């Protein structure tokens, strides 16, 4: 097996589509009333799936955290420290919830955190050089 991507189970699909498309620049083409968003972002599968649709599909009920979700994060990389600061500022101005302002950590990474409208944590970080796989 290999890791293919990740997904978020969402309550308000329209709001989440607008956030990831309009605030973070993901190329989402689906309508806001869709139940499933499936896209590739920088070679990684990214999925938004309606919670009620998933519950219907699996014939189960699930519990969901309200507020800021401290169980996982989505990590986004930019090439320079300046881009970390600029992307954080731009995202917060467009409606992202600020969690941690840009900070240079002892291990040499400049990082910051925001949250999406449903409380999922998003890190924007850089080691001040292009990303290497």
Structure keywords:
about 130 residues, alpha/beta, 2,3-Dihydroxybiphenyl 1,2-Dioxygenase, domain 1, 2 domains, 3-stranded mixed beta sheet, 7 strands
Summarize the model shown.
The protein has 133 residues and is of the alpha/beta class. The protein has three helices and seven strands; from the N terminus they run E-H-E-E-H-E-H-E-E-E. The protein has two domains: 5-58, 2,3-Dihydroxybiphenyl 1,2-Dioxygenase, domain 1, CATH 3.10.180; 69-126, 2,3-Dihydroxybiphenyl 1,2-Dioxygenase, domain 1, CATH 3.10.180.10.
Topology:
Elements: E1 5-10, H1 13-23, E2 36-41, E3 44-50, H2 51-58, E4 69-77, H3 81-93, E5 97-104, E6 110-115, E7 120-126
Parallel strand pairs: 1-3, 4-7
Antiparallel strand pairs: 2-3, 5-6, 6-7
- CATH first level of the largest domain: Alpha Beta
The CATH topology name of the largest domain reads 2,3-Dihydroxybiphenyl 1,2-Dioxygenase, domain 1
Distance between the termini: 19 Å
Give the topology string: H per helix, E per strand. EHEEHEHEEE
Q: Calculate the mean pLDDT score and round it.
A: 94
Can you walk through the features of this model?
With about 130 residues, the chain is an alpha/beta fold. It has two domains: about 5-60, Roll (2,3-Dihydroxybiphenyl 1,2-Dioxygenase, domain 1); about 70-125, 2,3-Dihydroxybiphenyl 1,2-Dioxygenase, domain 1 (Roll), CATH 3.10.180. It is about 25% helix and about 35% strand. The protein has a four-stranded mixed sheet with strand order 4-7-6-5.
């Amino acid at each position: 097996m290999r890791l293919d991507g990740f997904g978020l189970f969402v309550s308000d699909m329209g709001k989440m589509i607008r956030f990831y498309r309009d605030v973070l620049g993901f190329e989402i083409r689906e309508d806001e009333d869709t139940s499933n968003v499936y896209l590739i972002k920088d070679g990684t599968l990214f999925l938004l799936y309606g919670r009620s649709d998933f519950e219907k599909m699996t014939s189960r009920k699930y519990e969901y955290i309200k507020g800021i979700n401290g169980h996982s994060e989505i990590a986004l990389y930019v090439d320079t420290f300046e881009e970390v600061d600029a992307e954080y500022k731009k995202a917060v101005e467009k409606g992202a919830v600020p969690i941690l302002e840009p900070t240079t950590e002892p291990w040499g990474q400049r990082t910051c955190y925001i949250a999406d409208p449903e409380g999922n944590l998003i890190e924007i970080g850089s080691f001040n050089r292009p990303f290497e796989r």
